Amino acid sequence: MSSENTPKDWADLAGRVVVHVENYLAGLERCARGEGGQQTVSLLLLEVSQIMLAGAQLGASPDVVLPDNWEPEMGEDPDLDAVRQGLAERLAVVDEYAEVFDPYKEPELTSYRLSDDLVDIASDLVHGLRHYQADRPLEALWWWQYSYLNHWGNHGGASLRALHAVVSGVRLQVADEDVNEVLVTT
C-alpha cells in the first residue's frame, strides 16, 4: 500500500480484516461451549494464528487516521464473561502461564491466563466489528489497528506462544500426563 491510501484501499483492508475477526469470534465461542473437545487447544492455536495474521497486516499498514481524529460513540460493548468462563473451564489444566510482557522494557515474568488473553483479544475485535457493522469501516480499521498495536497484539503473541507450547509438548511427547490426557489428541 502506498503512504497515501485511498478510501477504497482502506475499505478493502477492512473487508479482509473483518473476515478474520468474525472467524476468530465464532471459533472462540465454539471452543468456549466445548465444541472443540480434546482439540480445543489446537483449534485455539489456529484461531489465534489467523487473527495475528490480520494484526500483522494492520501493523504493517500506514497509520489509519480518522478525518476528525475522533471515534464515534458506540455505547457498551457486549459482555464476554460467559466466553471467558467457558474457556477457563476447558483450559483449566493450562490456563495459567508465565510470559514476559515486554522483553525490552520489562524482562520479568508476568502471570497470564489464556482465557483472559483470548477474551481480551475478542473484546477489542468486537468493538471494531460494531463500527464495521454500523457501516463505518474506517473507524473499524482505525480501532483494530490502534488496539492491535496497543493491546490485543501483545495478548495474541503471548497466547500464541502458550498454545504452541501445549500443542508441541503433547505432539513431541514432553508434556505432563494431565495435559496429554485432557487437552490434545495426536
Helix content: 55-70%
Give the class from helix and strand content and strand pairing.
Answer: mainly alpha
Number of helices: 6
- Any idea what the shape is? globular
Distance between the termini: 41 Å
In which order are the strands of the major sheet placed?
1-2
Q: Which regions contain 5 or more consecutive residues with pLDDT less than 50?
A: none
Q: Order of SSEs, N→C?
A: HHHEEHHH
Q: How large a portion of the residues is in β-strands, by DSSP E?
A: 5-15%
The main β sheet shows up as: 2 strands, antiparallel
Please report the total strand number as a whole number: 2
Q: What's the alpha carbon Rg, rounded to whole Å? A: 17 Å
Layout of helices and strands, plus pairs?
Elements: H1 7-32, H2 40-60, H3 81-90, E1 96-102, E2 106-113, H4 114-133, H5 137-171, H6 177-182
Antiparallel strand pairs: 1-2
Helix pairs in contact: 1-2, 1-3, 1-4, 1-5, 2-5, 3-4, 4-5
Description:
It is a single chain. The chain is mostly helical and 186 residues long. It is built from six helices and two strands. The chain has a two-stranded antiparallel ribbon with strand order 1-2. It is globular, with a radius of gyration of 17 Å. The mean pLDDT is 88.
List keywords for this structure.
186 residues, 6 helices, 63% helix, globular, two-stranded antiparallel ribbon, 8% strand, mainly alpha
